[in-house]
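[audit] Reproducing an earlier prediction to check determinism. Same input, same settings, fresh worker. If the tokens differ from the archived copy the diff job will pick it up downstream; this log only records the rerun itself.
[audit] input (100 residues):
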Amino acid sequence: MAEKKATKKATETKATAAKKTETVKKTATKAAKATVAVNAENAGFKAGDVYQALAAAEKALSVKEIAKAAKISEEETLLGLGWLFKEGKLANADEKVTLA
């Protein structure tokens, strides 16, 4: 009888540990955010991605639409937009962006 209790307790402990590990992994995954390297080289590449997406669309797009078309994050899209606005390559049109 003592052997059954010990085995059952060991099994329960392993199951509890597995659940805790799974919870920690899920939390870590949710907490992890993509970071954007903010430097001249990366900003230039993202600006190129944004420019190409707008040129291909041939119409004004929102930030989300640009990010989806360029297959980059919204943060990277904003980085590229900043570069292009500074160069005077873009124009604003009702909360959307188009090539100037």
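[audit] rerun output stored. Observation attached for the diff report: The chain has a mean pLDDT of 80.
[audit] end
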